[in-house]
Amino acid sequence: MAALYEGYTLCGLVPDQNLSSSGIQGIEEERDRDHVVVTDSTRSVTLYKVSDQKPLGSWTVKQGQKLTCPAVFNSQTNEYVAVTDNKVIRIWKEDDILLDKAFKATVSSDVWKVHCTHGGEPVVLFQRGAVRLLDSLLAAPQQPIEEVLAQEEAIRWSTIIVAETQQFIIITTEQKGEHFLYLQRLNPNSVQRYRLEREEPGLSPLSFSATYRDKHICLLYLYPNGHVYQSVLSVRGLGTEEGVQALPLPRSLLLGLPVGDGQLEAASAMALDEAHVAVVGVPHPSAGGGKDFLCIWNTNFQTLQAGKEMAGKIYGQLWSYSNKVFIPHGKTLSIIPFECPKSSLASALGKLKHTKTEESKTPNSVPSWNNILHGEKAQPSKSAETRRTVSWISVFANCEFVIVHTLTAPVEEIQKEVEGFLTRAEFQDLQPSVGQLALTLVSRSLADPAFYSSSTLAQLVHTRCLCHSVCPDLVLLALEKKDYFLCQLCLQFFPDIPEAVTCACLKAFISPTSSVVNDRQTRAEDVKKKASAPSQLSCPVGLHKAVLINEILQTPYSDTFLLPHLKDLSSQHVMLFLQYLQFLYLKYSQDAFPQMEGFRSPSLSQIMDWVCLLLDAHFTVLVMTPEAKGLLLNLHRFVKSQVRLVSELGKIEGSLQELRKMKAKESIGQYSIEIIELF
């Protein structure tokens, strides 16, 4: 199933005053997958390193000049190419400081855009439809440029595709309400014109994207009514003569997206692979109004597979490179990593069998770290039951019935209805339905403080069809209701919990005044009060808190986004947390318990990473706190002993490697003495 992961900010934006434009003209991937070139709508081009969000270079044109097309990177010459004031082509290298001193050439006709593929020569597309290779154009910049488009016909979108080692320029145009597509091949030159089928009167496509697969170019386009169409073009049928007659372009409806009230305005759809489409600016089918989402839809099975709320205004722009989506929203350009596993009916329904790992435990055996601390045996997991596929109409009809019922029914009835819905084999693990149910329950709980169905929400989390981006208020609601068992489940099963929410959970779990024990936790995590460690180490927090804190330690995070929230912890919280991390470290260092298969225990590296993060966030406060002196000295001794151990192991590393290389003799008899010399 497709997934959207925690995003991060590449840079800030400077939108225009009426917020109609993001201020970004284009984003192009550079020499490798970790660099992008961002062109703003006025005067600047900036090179960014994606992995650490750092600008590596920036170039600006003079006041009064304007960049009129996005800059591209020519990998053949390691140069950047852009156009200013429609007719001035500028070329520069990364070490050039001033654009005004770089190479420039003025051409005879207005340029629409410069396109370039990795390893290919840049291609210049003029506003009237003509195409030139950059080198041939620069050989005679003032050469006459022919007009390919008809009168009153204007370009709306263009891109470049490499198909079977040949470059193709794709152009969409508009003329008096009619929309056309030009497919132009380079070397040998040929062009074919197509006419797009009419949609509802007055509707024009909002966005286009094109991909090449199975020896065909696939064009994807979105209309304001939410219809996403696909047209397939063969690249082998193009002759060497220009096609004057516009051929009809067949299309097929891929998706009918929800549009809410009225029509879509600033929206975009982009093909991620043969079965998944990223959509922005289209309402989330299960969220309320006033919220903008980035969503991934499965076109084969018409299912919403991932969604992420985007703060601020959406501008209808979307770029995708190297499994990352670049999306401007509000005053931020964000990068959202994504994953689209191979599509199948089982995965679309959430029925794909998981491999036998610690993450594939059944709901009835919630992993408890207390078992490791106190020597309990893991409970055997139940085998998955065989399920059969049913019709989509029946699925969603039953789902809608349950959702309507949850709006007014009491907790007991809702629990019974949802349990019945989930236990029916044909409905188990249906992701869109589970997401809608969770959103409905959470919305009602937030609106009505007297209503809260803890066990029902836990059932929905257990299906593994939920994530934080689908139901972003669930974890915070559980914290508000002090439902720490549900928090534990969310931390365990959600891969995309933001760092702010992770720290909120940590504060609640580690607070000395909070109580994290309830009857259901006591039943699920029965703890025997026996000391199993030979050193008789005592845990500085309660046993149930230890379980919850260890879920925190195993939650994915980014150092950059976690550190600011860790700084909000009080010195009392930091001291207690460090004491617990020290306790865990001692357990590991004394081999009191190894990493056991089948248990959710934090690794030694995870423990040390959190120690480092806490020290980074609170080192000054800890140094100035007298109570922390002993703790810091202990941690220092631990680290010093580990450094000494690693140093000693390094001394014998060469000898151990030689022993590994030695081959055992085939016949040594019943008794032998062998002398091994180690140098």
From TrEMBL:
Residues 1-338 form the Nucleolar protein 11 N-terminal domain. Residues 413-679 form the Nucleolar protein 11 C-terminal domain. Keywords: Activator, Nucleus, rRNA processing, Transcription, Transcription regulation. One of its GO terms (molecular function) is RNA binding. GO terms for cellular component: nucleolus. It is found in: Nucleus, Nucleolus. One of its GO terms (biological process) is maturation of SSU-rRNA. Pfam families: Nol11_C (PF20998), NOL11_N (PF08168). Residues 362-371 have a biased composition (Polar residues). Residues 356-380 are annotated as: Disordered. It comes from the Eukaryota. Its main location: nucleus. The keyword Cell wall biogenesis/degradation does not apply. This is Nucleolar protein 11. It comes from Astatotilapia calliptera (Eastern happy). The gene is NOL11.
